[in-house]
Design a protein that fits this description.
single chain; 398 residues; alpha+beta; Rossmann fold; Dna Ligase, domain 1; D-amino Acid Aminotransferase, Chain A, domain 1; 9-stranded antiparallel sheet; 5-stranded parallel sheet; 12 helices; globular; binds adenosine monophosphate
Length: 398
């Protein structure tokens, strides 16, 4: 049996965005030290970590030094090059594990693997030419979604086709050597299941979370997801467990589902880390997804996934910052059931996730209404933005 990595030890985190920030906060609360590693400086996670490594993922010397100085490595960003993972693994355990990471890095491999596990996905195929794209769209009933096989998120690199005739033009604009074409799923809703699996194979899951997207970016999440019936809930959680067991995942993994018109869940994609839809677990659940990640990768007992109160989460994108002014937070902060989370990002940009609000209520629908109203109250009231100060130590490796 592997001994647990106890509080006081050092956790290394690859990637340094908001997921890393919230993971770092959870880890520090448990008494761990955190070193984050990414090419960027003064990052959301770096601001709250003990050490921020500002280093490219192909700097093998730095990766070795980083790995030697930590007790375990996890990630908040799955697109770390496989060579970097291999180097780190030589010195420190990498969790969720190489197989989980590599599977999630390529949509085609991921969907092929899910298919081998006997799990339902949208119809898909690899396409390498405009002619293959055109044939695929025709086979999928005259429509489809073309996606990059790697590095796509929030709908980036995706093209929706509504006829075979568009294939040549879209292929040119796509400008990739290969892509994955998916048939369109006529879904009733989208939801996610966040699972956590320990070193000993113990599995737990949060109840499904209902997700609404705007422009392919997650907009609002609600839990509990009343639209998902108990049998569909059980089916989705069982599928999540299958994925994590087959990939031998250690840590948190999110499975995004489409709920089809007949109610049955099919998998859209997996994310081998805490997920945007699970942010509401910080305020609404006994143990949040970030603490679960820390517990799992350190070999500690997993926490309860029970929900304390119905909740909703609304993302705050850079669009509500006007010019150099940030929203007037005081209006939001007077709302007794709203919790504000900001990620310390200096430059608001359209579509950039700057923070989120979580609201609690006795009913999920009420929590959602409050979240939407609270966010709307920010949109027309801005004040001069203040600079973020940080105290974390920065190590620069160039
Ligand atoms: P993704 O980046 O693959 O999660 O896609 C972003 C969003 O695009 C999803 O949350 C869906 O709203 C939509 N989408 C992606 N794939 C499909 C599909 N095969 N059929 C219908 N909608 C899709």
């Amino acid at each position: 049996m592997t001994s647990p990595i106890l509080p006081g030890s050092v956790i290394g985190v690859l990637g340094s965005g908001q997921l890393g920030r919230m993971m770092t906060i959870a880890a520090r609360r448990l008494g761990y030290q955190i070193e984050v590693f990414s090419p960027e400086r003064n990052t959301p996670a770096g601001q709250v970590a003990d050490v921020e490594w500002v280093t490219e993922y192909d700097d093998n010397e730095a990766l070795t030094e980083f790995a030697k100085g930590v007790d375990v490595v996890t990630l908040e960003f799955e697109n770390v090059p496989s060579e970097a993972i291999s180097i780190i693994e030589h010195w420190a355990p990498v969790r969720p594990g190489a197989e989980t990471i590599f599977t999630a890095q390529n949509r085609f491999h991921e969907k092929s693997r899910l298919q081998k596990m006997g799990l339902p996905t949208a119809p898909f195929r690899l396409v390498r030419t405009a002619a293959e794209l055109s044939l695929g769209v025709s086979d999928y009933g005259g429509e489809g979604i073309l996606k990059t096989t790697t590095c796509g998120y929030d709908g980036k690199g995706q093209f929706r086709l509504t006829s075979c005739e568009q294939a040549h033009e879209v292929w040119e604009e796509f400008a990739q050597t290969e892509g994955i074409l998916e048939g369109i799923v006529d879904f009733a809703s989208e939801f996610s299941v966040i699972g956590v699996r320990g070193i000993d194979g113990e599995f737990r899951a949060y109840d499904p979370i209902l997700n609404q997207h705007v422009n392919h970016i997650l907009d609002v999440s609600v839990s509990p997801a009343q639209e998902i019936s108990p049998p569909e809930r059980a089916e989705a959680i069982a599928m999540t467990q299958t994925v994590m067991e087959e990939l031998d995942t250690i840590g948190v993994l999110c499975v995004e589902f489409f709920q089809t018109q007949d109610g049955s869940p099919i998998i859209n994609e997996i994310a081998p880390r805490p997920h945007n839809s699970g942010h509401l677990t910080i305020d609404a659940h006994m143990t949040c997804q970030f603490e679960q990640q820390v517990r799992a990768v350190c070999g500690l007992p997993l926490g309860s996934t029970a929900q304390r109160q119905p909740a909703a989460m609304a993302n705050l994108l850079g669009d509500i910052w006007e010019d150099n002014t940030s929203p007037d937070w005081s209006r939001l902060l007077t709302c007794p059931t709203a919790k504000l989370h900001l990620y310390g990002k200096a430059c608001p940009k359209s579509g950039r996730k700057m923070g989120h609000i979580t609201t609690l209520a006795s009913q999920a629908a009420t929590a959602e209404t409050i979240a939407r109203e609270a966010r709307q109250s920010l949109e027309s009231h801005s004040v001069q933005r203040t600079e973020v100060n940080t105290n974390s130590e920065t190590i620069q490796k160039t």
